[in-house]
């Protein structure tokens, strides 16, 4: 099977990119169902918490790259005297990506610590 067929069968390249960075599809909703179903979902989530540091490292790398691009395009924007500065817009975009990535890292860290130290 060639790679284009594999990507179309699995939802495309964008979908696989999202699954590479977004771990929340691995977890089950532990707030619905009977008491036993909720307990089983929570046990599943506790077992899956070992994957969170891997995703945290991916987000740390992504944020580092976004911060580097923000700084580099910010330097380029400082040298341009224009009313419309494309470098400034690109730097701001990477800054937003960095900020959102930091928020995701906080959520991942909280989820990992909660699932590690909160035994129901």
Explain the layout of strands and helices.
Blueprint: H1 3-9, H2 13-21, H3 35-48, H4 52-78, H5 86-117
Helix pairs in contact: 4-5
Q: How many E-type strands?
A: 0
Give the overall pLDDT as a whole number: 89
Which term fits the overall shape? elongated
**How many individual helices?**
5
Rounded to an integer in angstroms, the radius of gyration calculated over CA atoms is: 20 Å
Strand residue content: under 5%
Describe the largest sheet. none
The helix content, as a percent range, equals: over 70%
End-to-end separation in angstroms reads 45 Å
Give the count of structural domains: 1
> Structural class, from secondary structure content?
mainly alpha
Which residues sit in consecutive blocks of at least 5 with pLDDT less than 50? Answer: none
Search tags:
about 120 residues; mainly alpha
Could you walk me through the main structural features you see in this protein, from its secondary elements to its overall organization?
This protein is an all-alpha fold and 120 residues long. Helix content is 74%, strand content 0%. It has helices at 3-9, 13-21, 35-48, 52-78, 86-117. The longest helix has 32 residues, at 86-117. The protein is elongated and about 65 Å long. It starts with a helix and ends with a helix.
Give a concise summary.
The protein is mostly helical and 120 residues long. It has helices at 3-9, 13-21, 35-48, 52-78, 86-117. Helix 4 runs antiparallel to helix 5.
